[in-house]
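Posting this for the archive.
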Amino acid sequence: MENKFIDSIDEFQSINNILDKIFVSHSALPNQVFHKDFKDYLFEEFDYSMTEYFWFKITELAKTTNNDFIIMAVLNPSPLNYYFKEFGYFNCAKLKVDISSIQYMDMLNYSPEDSPADSIFINSYTVVWASPSMKWGIWAERDKGVCVVAFNEKMLKNSLISIFNEWRLIDSTVTDWIGLNYNNFTIPLEVKDKLFMNYNK
């Protein structure tokens, strides 16, 4: 399993170059986490991204957009300063679209030897999934309890919307999900306002 994670600095940097064209990697919700070419945002709960059903959906998306693999990478904790330094490989992988949902779950649950708490399933605060052709990206934050997909503006979202029929435009349900992670289970007004400003497009 470890051999499926990236352990080459050069390959990691190549993947990172793609991610940096889709995501504002140093950002976090409610700020904008996508570059300006990516719009048409839809939301789901964070825990959904850690399920077999999520894998079914994003492989369908990848096939529709003519990609034979999907990039999955953890941005926090740091893939370079923490994960590679401690374990000799990155919490980042190129997942072929023909792997099973069980294999996807195995990837999420795999942990370095003697460090079971460092699996992606347990130790991931910001995770992304991306099209290598840069047609779409998904950003997920455990601390906010949500994930959000965005599409390259040149794409026709209507041709993909059926894949995301359970995802939501930014609305009160989405902000309620996020509010569960705050004191009194209430999203601060400034966070809510910024979410609508950045993702109601």
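DSSP finds six helices and six strands in the chain. The longest strand covers residues 38-45.
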